From TrEMBL:
Keywords, in A-Z order: Hydrolase
Active site, per annotation: 164, 262
Species of the source: Daphnia galeata
Record-stated family: Belongs to the DDAH family.
GO BP: any one term: arginine metabolic process
Key word Hydrolase present: yes
Keyword Hydrolase among UniProt keywords: yes
UniProt GO molecular function: amino acid binding; dimethylargininase activity
Name this polypeptide is given: Dimethylargininase
Amino acid sequence: MANAFKFTHAIVCRLPDSFQKNSSATSDFNLSLAKEQHAAYVSTLRRLGLDVIELPPDEALPDCVFVEDTAVVVNGTALITRPGLPSRQKESIIMKAIIQKELGLPTVEISDQKATIDGGDVLFTGKEFFVGISERTNLGGARAVAAAFPEFPCTPVKINGALHLKNLVTMAGPDIICASKTKDSEEVLKRMEREATFQYQILRVPDRDAANCLFINGTLIHRTSDEFNESTKVFNELACETLELDISEIAKIAKVQTALTCCSILIRKPKHIKSL
């Protein structure tokens, strides 16, 4: 299902100044540089043909830049998540309104009040879902994904040593799973391969954080060679177009090494749905 990686829209949110005060920020974090890198990220999405909906920063929600965690959008339907960190759940309420108003997409809410799920734990391969069971996502959350998208197999996968599943594995193209040559990544990959309904090629990169990449409209976006030179050599061997993007400052937030995926919600809007 190559069309699964052809997108028409993206939703992003600019960094609030309160991001600087995030309890997990490192002492050398540079907010101005992070904002510049985020602006370049948004420009890259537009260059790849996406209509980008750019939300203003919300000072009351310091993590609002990490929009991926608030919704999972596939086949023109948006599952509104319930993030595992209670302080972030208001972000999902806001995202529901944006998706309905700006894109006119149908939304699905989670009925199980005990279910929690971050979008960073949801990997859609184009054929099936893998949902990371983590400190932020539980089995109830995985069941919510299965219920929202019954046309696709959905497999929960326990993860260790990472905040989200996409810290460890992402999609580097149709049927290509990108993983790193690290213990945590290899362990979750084995679990996925054991439970997978379909077969995939595996692209292994030497650097753990380089495994977080984005495949959009035929182009693979990955972290820069200045950060991960050996992994860049692996990406450059792929047949598709590749593009380096520096988002290292945002990634300095502890545990958030999924900066490429977590800063956007990617959407393929069906032609029959008109924006409101």
